[in-house]
Amino acid sequence: MFTSHGPGVRELAVQALSSVERGYDLLAPKFDHTPFRTPERMLDAVEETLAQREGSFGAGLDVCCGTGAGIGMLRRLCRERVTGVDLSAGMLAEARRAHPDPRVDFVRADARALPPELAASYDLAVSFGAFGHFLPAERPALFAGVHAALREGGVFAFPIGAPIPPSHPLWWAVAGFDAAMRVRNAVWRPPFVMYYRTFPLSGVRADLRAAGFTVETAALEHFGRRPSGAPRWRLVLARRSARPHRVHVREGLGPVG
């Protein structure tokens, strides 16, 4: 799974025993040599689907941009500035090195509390591979922040995979990983939040609508379909609607939808 340029077992162990922010700071220089980086095939599929359905956009925002895998896609899709947001200073440093473009800027921030200066500034927001770092109770704050960052009619797009059936060996691998992470977080501090089964489409759709989005999905046909005919991957297209959005506050989570 890892190349000779990627992190070793000891480095991964140190990361796993750190906080999310510190862990990614440590992993950043070698992150692009791990299987955790979003594959080019996925980026190409999302870009092609967005271009076909929406055409081009004004400004673009990559939420939890990491080392900048999605920035090149946004540069091609967007006519105006492109911004990457991430909590890890180390990941942002790698992203800046990879994209020395005056039209691209990077902001260090928690995606659950995006800076007010980003409000109503973007026509497209994307995110890849980061949602496992947010507990279900944190999704409303995350989605409310993205909603606020978009201009009216703006789109929040991200891929989501079909549920893995329990009969598939991967289901057991993923379930085992999540169980191990729960045990780790119960006995070790600081926590490292990373789960694979906490982002179901039904719950995500409900939280997006509560945040003020209208939601549709498009099949990413590049990845084929399951025997049932359902797509293996979908692109969620959440559009900021014109209706007023009420913001509530939950203790400890900040503004949420």
Automatic annotation (TrEMBL):
Alphabetical keyword list: Methyltransferase, Transferase
One of the GO BP terms on file: antibiotic biosynthetic process
CDD domains: AdoMet_MTases
Tree of life domain: Bacteria
Pfam families the record matches: Methyltransf_25
The keyword Membrane is assigned to this record: no
Keyword flag Plastid: no
Domain Methyltransferase residues, every copy: 61-154
GO molecular function: methyltransferase activity
Protein name: SAM-dependent methyltransferase
Organism: Streptomyces subrutilus
